[in-house]
Write a structure and sequence with these properties.
Blueprint (H helix, E strand, L loop, with lengths): L32 E2 L2 E2 L5 H8 L5 H6 L3 E2 L6 E2 L1 E5 L3 H12 L3 E6 L10 E4 L1 H10 L1 H9 L2 E2 L4 E6 L26 E4 L2 H8 L5 E4 H15 L4 E3 L3 E6 L6 E5 L4 E4 L1 E4 L6 H6 L14 E2 L2 E14 L8 E8 L2 E9 L2 E8 L27 H8 L5 H8 L7 E7 L9 E2 L2 E3 L2 H4 L8 H17 L7 H33 L14 H26 L8 H29 L19 H5 L2
Length: 591
């Protein structure tokens, strides 16, 4: 495994099994209730030892030996709480190592829900290292964004035509030079530095379906739906953990992996957070998680812009907010609008991540018009994307993130947290899912090297130490991106208009060369520096060439279907009329 650039972190801050050995990993121990009294928990591993109590002590100790296909011993038994990206990836990694894995998921059955998820180059390297078939299947459904121009655009000065321009400083002395692009991200260059496939997105339902299929090929009944983990009890070194499920039954395992998301039941018990989603009166703290200060609206549309094939994702910056658009494949554009609003400023339904799409605060309100009103005076590029969006598709979420757990381990005895359950982060760098995948891989490798059940708690602490610095650095960078864009950035200063005259505007202007030539190259180089697959130059090149063809074909088909169907949304007032759009600040005030 290769790990490059550790100094860059500072930028953000077995023996043979006896003939008499039993296989306790296949036993599912359940507690029963008699006259309202619960029987004392009995470890499955202890039961195995009791059964062979008459044999030599050495044979008894052999029952705790943990094996993998290349090493004798019983398979390690793992219970995973949560069947999201991190949980399913961990399940596949562990099943491929010969572990006995069961995932306990709260949803009653797999359903196709959820929007696109970004996988950066580092995550793609991990997927390749986990399984070639998995990687190939993901690539078949993938939309590359890092092969094209991605970066920050001026939300007020972009001229509305979706033109491709340079991000140079020519506009300082040439009033006719375009100032649409502020800074472009070196995604392709940093991926090429390590010989990795390029950043992109995949629809979450496609990803989950692939992961479930690959897991079922190894263990048909690996997932239990509709019966999530609610609590646990550590049974001691070598004795495993007793896991309580929603239906009141208990199962035992050597390890419990808490991968049940930001509002984790496993985390709630481990850190004694007072209840799942327990919220303070001012709504600024929920289950020990602080409100980030930002709410985000999201929507999706099919729209062929002049730069559709040339851009991956764009971040439009302006006073106290920013607006992001991304190609998510099949002619679709997904957008996000970030605002510094207090928690509970609810307007739109929140159906992300598979949760039930709850009622809109005001069913009569046109949410697209509302968001447009918050961007009055912004570029017509923003308005064009919003105008093409159905108001019924708009959703909203208050963003919560967590501080790095430098002073509390991610592990408690035989229980460990991964993914959003322990390092939920802001979405700006698209690294939430990527870090969960890294967690799953490193945890599996660590457990695979564990030869005795008594050593599992030590191995989980080793996993924590291996991941805490990198995951915390990514958390910090993700949060910093939001804080800088909203609190420290503004429309950049220019000598040719009056759009950026605040102190933040001057600061933003002076940040430009530092961001362009120092911070962003170092940031993305650090993110991509974890690549256990090694270099994949030829694979990356071949994937890009093939994708260029298939992407255009699927997009053109979508544009044609949308054209034939008219792709018009009738809900709410007619916001397609140009005359009803607010005049942009650029048109109104440019000298």
């Amino acid at each position: 495994m290769k790990f490059v650039g550790s100094s860059l972190v500072a930028i953000a801050t077995a023996s043979t099994v006896g003939a008499f050995m039993l296989q306790p990993s296949v036993i599912v121990q359940q507690r029963t209730i008699h006259s309202g009294t619960e029987e004392a928990p009995v470890s499955v591993l202890k039961m195995a030892n009791d059964e062979i109590n008459g044999f030599a002590t050495a044979a008894s100790k052999d029952s705790d030996l943990l094996g993998i296909p290349a090493r004798p011993g019983r398979p390690i038994k793992v219970a995973i709480a949560g069947g999201g990206v991190g949980g399913l990836t961990a399940a596949l990694c562990m099943l491929k190592k010969g572990f006995d894995v069961t995932v306990y998921e709260k949803t009653s059955a797999f359903a196709r829900f959820g929007g696109p998820i970004q996988f950066a180059s580092n995550a793609l390297s991990v997927l390749k290292e986990i399984d070639d078939k998995l990687f190939d299947r993901v690539m078949e459904k993938f939309t590359f964004t890092g092969t094209r121009t991605c970066g920050i655009k001026d939300g007020l000065r972009a001229d509305g035509s979706f033109r491709m321009t340079d991000d140079s400083l020519d506009y300082l002395w040439n009033p006719d030079a375009p100032a649409d692009w502020f800074v472009k991200f070196p995604l392709k260059e940093c991926a090429d530095l390590f010989g990795l496939p390029y950043t992109g997105v995949i629809d979450r339902p496609d990803l989950q379906e692939i992961l479930i299929d690959e897991c079922k090929a190894l263990k048909k009944d690996f997932i239990v739906n509709g019966n999530p983990v609610t609590a646990y009890e550590n049974l001691g070194n070598g004795e495993g953990v007793s896991v309580t499920l929603a239906d009141g039954t208990n199962v035992e395992a050597d390890v419990l992996v808490g991968s049940d998301g930001i509002w984790s039941a496993v985390r709630n018990q481990m850190y004694n957070e007072g209840g799942i989603k327990s919220t303070s009166k001012n709504q600024k703290v929920r289950q020990g998680c602080k409100y980030s200060g930002y709410t985000v609206f999201a929507g999706e549309t099919i729209l062929k812009t002049a730069d559709y094939y040339e851009t991956g994702y764009k971040v439009y910056i302006g006073p106290q907010r920013y607006f992001v658009t991304s190609d998510v494949g099949g002619g679709r554009i997904q957008w996000y609008a970030f605002f510094a609003f207090p928690p509970g400023s609810k307007k739109a339904p929140s159906g992300w991540g598979g949760s039930v799409r709850d009622a809109q605060a005001d069913p009569e309100e046109n949410l697209v018009q509302y968001i447009k009103s918050l961007h009055e005076g912004w570029s017509d590029e923003v308005m064009t994307v919003l105008d093409a969006t159905s108001p019924d598709s708009v959703e909203q979420r208050d963003l919560y993130d967590r501080s790095p757990e430098f002073f509390r381990s991610w592990a408690d005895g035989n229980v460990v947290l991964i993914g959003d359950a322990v390092h939920a982060m802001m979405p700006n760098l698209g690294q939430g899912g990527c870090q969960a995948i890294e967690d799953a891989y490193v945890l599996t490798e660590t457990l695979a090297a564990t030869k005795n059940a008594e050593k599992i708690p030590d191995s989980l602490q080793e996993f924590y130490r291996a991941r805490i610095v990198r995951a915390s650095a990514v958390q910090f960078l993700s949060r910093l991106a939001s804080d800088l864009i909203i609190n420290a950035f503004d429309t950049p200063w220019s000598p040719h208009d009056n759009l950026g005259k605040s102190w933040k505007s001057y600061l933003t202007f002076f940040w430009k060369p530092i961001l362009q030539y120092v911070i962003f190259p170092l940031q993305f180089a650090f993110l991509y520096s974890y690549y256990p697959s090694g270099r994949m130059d030829d694979i990356a090149k071949a994937l890009d060439e093939r994708w260029q063809v298939t992407h255009k074909e699927s997009a053109e088909e979508a544009f044609e279907r949308a054209s034939e169907d008219g792709f018009k949304f009738e809900s709410g007032p007619s916001f397609f009329k140009k005359a009803e759009q607010p005049e942009t600040v650029l048109a109104a005030r440019k000298d």
